[in-house]
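Protocol step 4 of 6: structure prediction from sequence.
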Amino acid sequence: MSNIKIYYHQFHIQEYEKSPFSLDGVGFEPEMVYNESLKNAVYSNCPAWKHKSTRTFLIRSPVDIHLVVDNQKQGMYSTNLGSEGLNMYCSGTFVPGWCTPERTTIQLSIPRILFWTNHKNVWIESRPYYETAIKNNLTSVPAWYNMSNWIRPIGTAFNVVDSSKPIIINRGDVLFEVCFYSKNLDDGILLKKTLPPKKLIDKMDRMSEVKRHIRNLSRKFLFKNKESKCPFHFMWK
């Protein structure tokens, strides 16, 4: 067993060095689920729960986002952001099929956090937080990939629970969780806040261009693992 060091930086759009969200007290740092949980809960002494919760982190919204979906017009507006704020924080929303009678899916561009590591074959997973469906009227779409090979900020889509009701996100609300997996699931996870080096940003930009021009090729980086297809490779043996 060893400790896997994960670096992270929270920013806004492409302003890595000047983003206000990178300042202490402005953006919310990822919080370990174990540290934020009730220690007198009936499951608090369960080693299986503790093992998972010490490797899972909460991601909170640094701003208020209040949205209303108009299914008839297949549109959306904000009651607190205005059109400029809507375009700023809800990028990638209006793609074909985003709003249907069966499902409304939106894309938020905040919080925007870049995670990276120097360790090999470390996977990152974004997954729903259980309270958002009730509290915020949405739930995140889960996903994972090999973060040792693919460098990109966490980007999460959300399914709206009831599009006839408003989406209310207040500053500090948890939007989703992130988990990290290495070859040895007993490894500890250590998060360290730091500014990403220019070399890393340049590499990330090049990878984004690969996805834009040769979309199927990105799968080679997203899921590539020199030793196995995923952290749970033993399940396929």
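Step 5 (inspection) to follow. The helical segments are 33-36, 47-53, 82-89, 132-135, 198-213, 218-222.
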